[in-house]
Design brief:
Blueprint lengths: L1 E3 L7 E3 L8 H16 L14 H4 L10 H12 L5 H5 L4 H24 L1
Antiparallel strand pairs: 1-2
């Protein structure tokens, strides 16, 4: 997986698509998607101590138009059959997928708006 973003740059993650997806990569991508979603209209603000301080304090990031689409593809990959993250949630898979929905909603909306442009 390739992740970039630091300081006040938005995170972008590309999750490998063909091999079994390690849960560490999935967790990193979920964290990046959480930051992206928090910066989009309708996204939940970050309140966790693990988030960058400037975002918790109300700071913002400019999210490039292509990032929501990348985040959406990463979330789809994380929930796929060949993902360790999904395997770890084997018995409560539907609940785990439901937990991702607050991230998906603003990301899907932004990705759809970009694809219409």
């Amino acid at each position: 997986m390739l992740c970039s973003g630091s300081g006040r740059r938005p995170p972008t993650c590309l999750v490998p698509g063909d091999d079994y997806l390690d849960s560490d990569f999935a967790c990193d991508a979920i964290a990046a998607a959480t930051v992206v979603a928090s910066q989009l209209p309708g996204g939940e603000p970050l309140t966790t101590a693990y988030a960058p301080d400037f975002l918790v304090d109300g700071g913002t990031l400019d999210i490039p138009a292509d990032v929501p689409g990348l985040a959406l593809r990463a979330l789809d990959r994380i929930a796929a059959d060949d993902s360790e993250w999904r395997s770890l949630w084997e018995y409560t898979h539907e609940q785990a997928i439901t937990e991702l929905q607050p991230l998906r909603t603003p990301i899907e909306r932004a990705a759809n708006e970009t694809s219409k442009s």
